[in-house]
Amino acid sequence: MNTAAVVQTALPSAEISLFGMFWQAHIVVKLVMMGLIAASVWCWAIIIDKSLLFGRYRRSMNQFEEVFWSGRSLDELYRSLEDRPVHGMQALFQAAMREWRRTFDGQRRAVGSLQQRIDRALDLAIQREGETLQARLGVLATVGSSAPFIGLFGTVWGIMTSFRSIAASNNTSLAVVAPGIAEALFATAIGLFAAIPAVIAYNKLQSEATRTQARLEGFADEFSSILSRQIDERVAA
Asked: MotA/TolQ/ExbB proton channel domain location, by residue (predicted)?
């Protein structure tokens, strides 16, 4: 059989399209592709969710700082936030003010260790907010680092299958080899498609989380100083 005849008989049976390459791939390669596609969808869901979350944090902290530094009474501000779900700086403010009110609204005023309790409450609030900011970012890092290798596994498996098919058919023409190689390389392409956005988004979101947490820590230090001065004034009085 000459080359032209092989090309004419091989091309109609091998559909070189994305769906065709997926459908004709080996079951192992199909599982790899479906896993990578699912990981990519999961990553994009996390990216969108975290982007919206950080946007809410920025707007919320900007608004709270405007109110906080406007000279409004701390007790009045605490009452306005008491029954509302809060996050970010509001959560830190509530945690410190809750400890403050427990001390001065009770009959026994343990003022001596109040500053330590406030600092501990602020540290715990920062830790909780940091966990919220960092949640699921590890998934992006995992997908970004492992997806290319998973795709490469699918490619190697597909190439092995293609070589076995070539050996069985005793035909090494390009028309016979190309479809199987294309199917195998498609797995690597999907792996890169999942990994590249995950790595870029992880670096960006991780940087955003670090900046937000640093901003929270800065507010905690300033608020702790304010409460420390008020504690000294009340003790002196």
From this structure: 90-217
What 3-state class would DSSP assign to 1? Answer: coil
5 versus 121: which is more confidently predicted? 121
- Closest by Cα among 133, 121, 127, 128 to 57: 133
**This prediction's pTM:** 0.78
The residue type found at 166 is: I
Q: Report the alpha-carbon angle 108-113-118, nearest 5.
A: 100
Phi-psi category of residue 153: left, alpha or beta, with phi > 0 → left and psi -120 to 50 → alpha: alpha
Nearest to 54 by CA among 128, 139, 126, 133: 133
In tens, the pLDDT along 111-131 reads: 667 888 888 999 999 999 999
Q: Which residue has the tokens 């999907």?
A: 190
